[in-house]
Amino acid sequence: MGPIVPVVLGVTAVVGAGVAIWELWGKKALESADRTSRWGTDIGEAADRSATKMRDASGKISGAFADTTTLSKENAKRLPTV
Fold first, then answer.
1. 49-67 pLDDT, tens per residue?
2. Mean pLDDT score of the chain, rounded to an integer?
3. Closest CA to 43 of 53, 54, 31, 55
4. Using an 8 Å Cβ cutoff, are 39 and 51 in contact?
5. Residue 23, CB half-sphere, CA atoms under 13 Å: how many?
6. Residues 38, 48: contact at Cβ < 8 Å?
7. Is residue 47 predicted with pLDDT exceeding 90?
8. Distance CA 38, CA 40 (A)
9. Which residue from 22, 62, 79, 82 could staple onto 26, CB 3.0 to 4.6 Å apart?
10. What span, in angstroms and rounded, lies between the C-alpha atoms of 43 and 52?
């Protein structure tokens, strides 16, 4: 059992180092890659939240305008002609 202990400790150290590297660097790199895929460049965490809110609001506003246009056209068809 004596020779196995150093191997187990070595594997544990390597796994621990891998976890530490992931926590310190890997998560941030993945988050940066996600932002880059959304915006074409990494705009940072705070700007990403703001830009996402603006994009979502813009989509809702566009949808509201489209609904208004459609309803206006439908209502215009129902008006009696003089």
1. 999 999 999 989 988 888 8
2. 87
3. 31
4. yes
5. 6
6. yes
7. yes
8. 6
9. 22
10. 11
- Phi and psi, residue 41, nearest 5°: -160, 160
Please report where in the chains the tokens 């003089």 appear, as a residue.
82
Give the CA count within 13 Å in the CB-facing half-sphere of 67.
6
Q: Locate tokens 């809702």: which residue?
A: 60
For 17, 68, 80, the CA distances from 74, given in Å and listed in that order, are 65, 10, 12
How far apart CA 34 and CA 15 sit, in angstroms, is 26
Threshold 0.85, pTM exceeds = no
What's the pLDDT at 82? 67
Q: Which pLDDT band holds residue 33 (cuts at 50, 70, 90)? A: very high
